[in-house]
Amino acid sequence: MYYNILLWTCFSASVVTSLPQSSNKNGWQNFDTTGSVGQTVRTSSGSVVGHASSWKPDVSEYLGIPYAQPPTGDLRFAAPLAYQNPSQNAIEASSFSPDCPSRFALSQDLEVPGNTMADIVFRQLVQLNRTFSEDCLTLNIWSKPQSDMHQALKPVMVWFYGGGFTSGSSANPSYNGARLADEKDVIVVSVNYRIGIFGFPGSGELPDLNLGILDQRLAVEWLRDNIAGFGGDPKRITLFGQSAGSQIVDFYSFAFLEDPIVNGFIMQSGFAYNSPSPQETGWLNSSSAVNCTGEQNLQCMRSKSMLEILAGATGYFGPTADEKIAFADYQSRREQGLFIKRPILAGNVNDENGLEVVIACGSGACPPPQPQNDTAFEVHPIACGTSVATSARLDHGVRAWRYLYTAIFPNQNVGTFGAWHGSDIGQVFGTSAFLTGIPDSPEQEEFGEKTRTAWTDFAKDPENGLVELGWPLAVDTGRE
C-alpha cells in the first residue's frame, strides 16, 4: 500500500487558472497552444522548433533553448544576461546543450564497463560521455499540445539538478520530463546552471558571487515571459529539485521575496543552510595555479581555457553569503518569516548516506550490506534540516507537507541499506525503467503513479492539491 512504502508526515495553504492569450508579456503574437507535436514556438530567444519525444511521441520536446548569453569572455564570472538572437534564426531544439563546466570534464577517460545498477547510476553521476562548454545556459521543455484553444494553460514544473554545486546536468536521462508531461497534464522544464568555480567563484573583484542561483532566476524570468507559448501557465510555476537542486529551491525562496514569480516549492533531500562568509582562499589558490597572481587577477582568469581553470580549481565553490542571494543566518530569517509565503512539499529518503555506496560500487569497491538504521530519519542532518524548514513555514501560516521516502525496487537496488540519496527521482519522473532497461515491477508502477500524482497535484494547486488527494493538513511532530 502507498502509506506502507512512503510515510507522509504532514505539516502543511488559490491558484489562478489562465486561458491562452494572444500575446505574451513582451507583446508579440507568439502562439496558438493547439497544434501539432513539436510545433514552432516564438520566444524572446527566437523561434524554437521542437520535435516529438522519442520516448513519449505525443509529447513535444524542446531541448537546449538558450535563455542567457554564453558566459564567456567578459561574461565569464559575471551575472547572466538575457539571451539575444539578433539574426532571429530559428533555434532547432533537437538536442541537449553541452553540460556546464564540471570537475568531471577532467575525467572523461574514466572507464566504468560494468552494467550493474551501481555502474549505471555512477556513469550518470560522473557525466560520462558528455561534452562540456561554458556555452551551456539552456533549458529544456516537455509539453503536450493542447487539444482545444480554450483549454486552460497547464501548471509548470521547473527542475533544478543536484550534484553538490560541483557537478550535474539537465541532460541526465533520469530527469527526462516526457512521462510527467504525457500522463499528468503539466509542462516540465529542466534548467542548466553554472556550478563550481564558474558558478560560485568567490573573487573579491566580483559584485556577484552566487552566479549559479542568478542563472536559475533568469531562467525563471524567461519562463514567466515565454512559457505560455508552450501551453504553460506563468502564474502556476513550481520549483522542484533534489540534493543541491533542492537547496537552491530553498535558497530561491529566501532570495526573491520582492518578485517571487513562482507559486510553490518541492524540496527533495535538501534545504537552505547557513552559507559561509566570502572567502577568497579558493579563488586565490585556483588563480595562482594557472599563473594569475596579484590582486587584479580577474582578467587573467578570463583569458584561460575552461580546462585550465578546472584543473587548477581547489577549495570551496558553492553558495556564499552575500546577504542578497545567499545568507549567513537562515534560522534567523526563518524565525522572522523572511521567505516567499508559498506552500512547500519537502522530505528525504531513509538512507541519505546510501549514495556513498553507489559511488564506492561504481569505483569497484562495494561495501557489504549492513542492517538498516531505523533511526536514520531522526538523526540525519538532511532530515533534521528539512523538518526545521517545514516547521518555519507552519509558524508563519504557510502550508507545508513533509514526507519520508523508504521505497527501493529491483531496478534501483544498488546494494544500499534503504532508499538511497536520489532514488526518489526515478519515481517522480517515472524514468527508472527508461534509464536501466529493467521494467518496473507492478508494485513500483502503482507506487510511482501515486508519487507522480502527488507531485503534480501539488503543482496544479499548491494550496489544496494534496488536501484534495486525501492528505491531512499539517501537524507539528516536533522532529526539529
TrEMBL record:
Transmembrane segments: none annotated. Its EC number is 3.1.1.-. Residues 39-355 form the Carboxylesterase type B domain. SUPFAM superfamilies: alpha/beta-Hydrolases. Residues 1-18 form the signal peptide. Belongs to the type-B carboxylesterase/lipase family. This is Carboxylic ester hydrolase. It comes from Knufia fluminis. The lineage of its organism: Eukaryota, Fungi, Dikarya, Ascomycota, Pezizomycotina.
